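BUG: 3D viewer hangs when loading the predicted structure for this chain

Environment: internal workstation, default settings.
Expected: structure renders.
Actual: progress bar stalls at 90%.

Input used:
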Amino acid sequence: MERDQRDLVTAADRVYHYLMFSGPESWGSHRWADWAMNRDRWDWNPGVGLIAAADYGSFGGSQWVLRDVEAWVERNLGGSEQVKVVNSLAPFAVFPLLYRLTGKRFYADKAEEIALWLVKQAPRTREGAFEHTVTENASFSEQVWADTVFMAVLFLARTARLTGNKELADEAMKQTLLHLQALQDDETGLLFHGWNSATGDWMSAARWNRANAWNAVGVPMIVEEASELCGDVEMLGELRERYLRLAEALVHCQNESGLWPTVLDRAGFYEETSGSAGIACGLYKAARAGWIPAEMATASADRTVAAVLAQVRGDGAVLGVSGGTPVLATVEAYDEVPTFPTLYGQGLVLLLFSEKLRGYV
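Structure tokens produced before the viewer hung:
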């Protein structure tokens, strides 16, 4: 094993352990510390970490990691019954894998139940896209957010593949395309954070780093799960065309450091680690799928890996991660969001490291 590979393995292990086992004494004293790092709630933040942990364990064949994932589900499952919204579906994305590994019918049945709720009952905008609904006491009526693709559509695609349900696969692919159509800027190829169907605009029109990351990494994962069952060649073709435009635009606005600014077309804004990791992970995945040139993806994403490694603290905490961010009132407000370790930050970095390690196999 080469030194670079050993360093990456060590860093991934540290990031995983901070994600799954760190305590409040290491989270910091800021007022968002508990929300950012408390694993024991059923929501998108721990859900992203859980998806990454399952991917890490599955790739490495680490049965103890997968036992950690199942233990988290068993410990927190009750929280899934308290509220059913798009943004709280992320943890269910590990259920298809848990079913395959354990044979426990509960995981398959529950995944199908939630997927059918999503398709048949979840609120939609007038264009048919899933409305972005959240666990917090807030309403974003008629709004399409980039976040939804990773938080809900990935789960839907995985459940479609598990069940062989073509209706679910069709919907997963349709939702992915609807989100790209609503959010992609024709001028730059980048994605805006959100779209308001009622007012017909992108609100603050921020080309936010992590919004692009949720799609950069989420779209290849969704297509891998659902495209064969869906079989819509025209839809897949448009998805690939849009993704290539997005990837080229992302590579174009990457900083020399290997990271991306928190708003992609504002080079003077602070560099944000979690979104940078998600973007690079997506570039690796898309290149592996043959969607984008491998040379372009590797040249960009390898620089990101080196930069992200420098953001991993000795105890595994990932630094430079912006706090939870709704669609903000102005572009400038994104540069004022504080940074601190979060479960989704740990997760996106772990996904990146796992994807890079796949390249060594």
